[in-house]
Design brief:
Helix content is 75%, strand content 2%. It has helices at 11-22, 25-37, 41-69, 73-80, 85-118, 129-135, 139-156, 159-186, 200-208, 217-235, 241-247, 255-290, 296-307, 310-346, 350-370, 389-417, 420-426, 436-459; strands at 189-191, 197-199, 379-380, 386-387. It has 18 helices and 4 strands. The chain has a two-stranded antiparallel sheet with strand order 1-2. Strands 3-4 form a two-stranded antiparallel ribbon. α13 packs antiparallel against α14. β1 (189-191) and β2 form a beta hairpin. The radius of gyration is 21 Å and the shape is globular.
Length: 466
């Protein structure tokens, strides 16, 4: 039951809210560490190609489905084809899983922001500080609660008074912070005890220049899966979020123009985030520091801030404030999707469903927090790595479910109802869809094949062939 009049006021509100969903922890936390792990420039090249092709196709599909059906993801696919109603329930699983851990990561960011706000942050520099914090039984839960409460409040306020209003404030501030810190990072230099000098521009070269040395088919598929899972996470596609946001878009809004702006906004922020983090980490910690993985911003960056001297604390406060903004906008979009879907499913008011989803998010987030202490375990993943509770949820949602959902969606749109079903919606207001040919070819022939390959890689079946 969608509330009457629940919609964005116009194109700008929609673009900023959708960009707010897309621009989040995925861009500023996930993108840089994956880029560093997968060879810098090579990962960046693969990612940019995927955004211009797969990202454009999947984003267009989700938003157009939402606006044309005027339904959230739970009912939209059944509206297109009755037999495909199950696909709506599959998409519902993704934000359900993501919400279990997103507020936990948000709590980590709040913790670090508070540390630098209250002190010089030297306590955060020790290698064991982050591990000690996340493995404690109380502190992570307290900071998670702060982040979750703020998220729930914005969603409770609704589309116009909550999501759109706060996106218009947060997104411009986020961009200014990213650009400012990124430019500052490129001016940095550091000399080791042995006389070795590293500069921000050298780090930028590592970030931008692809290195194909020793590249194998299996390694390329691993990079491709990382880049595609990042695309899913970053653009919020194949998880019902953009379908739900699309259902709020008024008919007079030019979809193609808005989609291009969202795509450019999201990719630009991811690119700047990589330029912000990777050169700075390289300057003070070398290539070894870039290999920190998911803990890159929580372990490596505090060392960078300390090495900056007095200005480091100010940069740290600005950085974690920026991270908080980004995490909040994405968490709001995930919770909004769950609330909107459950309002339809259970025929309850927004207030009632915010309370129910809030309780669900709280209980599951507490379990994720405990996954680093009393519920700790190591689970083997198909890619050969081991994971604990948060990583398992992330792997199932981003590397397993999203390629599978994209595969099924491409079959539905490309072969069951036909690409014209989408392109006609994009052209509704007489807008020229310049990439219509690319869209039709990709959704029918390229997306299904690549998604099938990625699904096989994520499940481990590809190891039989490569």
């Amino acid at each position: 039951m969608k509330e009457k009049g629940s919609s964005f006021t116009g194109s700008l509100g929609f673009v900023l809210a959708a960009a707010g969903s897309a621009v989040g922890v995925g861009n500023i936390w996930r993108f840089p560490y994956l880029c560093a792990k997968d060879g810098g420039g090579l990962f960046l090249l693969v990612y940019l190609i995927l955004v211009a092709t797969f990202g454009f196709v999947l984003l267009t599909t989700d938003i157009a489905i939402g606006r044309k059906t005027k339904q959230n993801a739970l009912k939209a696919f059944g509206t297109i084809q009755r037999k495909w109603k199950f696909l709506g329930y599959l998409t519902f699983l993704v934000p359900t899983l993501i919400m279990t851990y997103y507020s936990v990561i948000g709590g980590w960011i709040v913790k670090y922001f508070c540390v630098y706000l209250a002190s010089d942050g030297k306590e955060a520099v020790g290698d064991g500080y982050f591990t000690s914090f996340i493995s404690s039984k109380v502190s992570p839960i307290v900071f998670m609660l702060v982040f979750l409460a703020l998220t729930a409040w914005i969603v409770y306020r609704g589309v116009e008074k909550g999501i759109e209003k706060y996106s218009k404030i947060i997104m411009p501030g986020l961009i200014l912070l990213i650009v400012g810190i990124a430019i500052f990072g490129l001016t940095l230099s550091h000399q080791d005890a042995d006389g070795t000098v590293r500069t921000g521009m050298q780090g930028l070269s590592i970030y931008l220049k692809p290195d194909f040395t020793g590249l194998t088919v299996k390694r390329f598929l691993e990079i491709l899966l990382d880049a595609m899972s990042q695309l899913f996470f970053s653009l919020s596609v194949s998880m019902g979020i953009m379908v739900t946001y699309g259902s709020y878009v008024k008919d007079e809004v030019h979809l193609n123009q808005s989609i291009n702006q969202i795509e450019l906004f999201d990719t630009g922020v991811a690119f700047l985030a990589g330029m912000l983090i990777i050169p700075s980490v390289f300057v003070f910690l070398g290539k070894e520091g870039m290999a920190a993985g998911p803990s890159l911003i929580f372990i490596s960056l505090p060392k960078v801030f300390e090495a900056m001297g007095g200005v480091g604390r100010i940069i740290a406060i600005a950085f974690f404030l920026m991270m908080g903004f980004a995490a909040l906008t994405s968490a709001v979009s995930v919770m909004e999707t769950l609330v909107a879907n459950c309002m339809e499913l259970f025929h309850k008011t927004r207030k009632q469903m915010c309370l129910m989803i809030g309780v669900y998010s709280l209980v599951t987030a507490v379990l994720i927090c405990l996954g680093y202490n009393v519920l700790y375990f190591e689970f083997p993943l198909p890619n050969g790595s081991t994971a604990q509770l948060l990583d398992v949820m992330d792997y199932i949602s981003n590397s397993f479910l999203m390629p599978f959902i994209s595969l099924l969606t491409s079959i539905l749109i490309g072969w069951v109802v036909g690409p014209k079903w989408i392109t006609s919606e994009v052209e509704r207001n007489g807008e020229t869809f310049k990439r219509e040919g690319l869209y039709s070819f990709m959704i029918r022939y390229v997306v299904p094949v690549v998604m099938l390959i990625l699904f096989l890689v994520s499940t481990g079946f590809a190891n039989l062939f490569f």
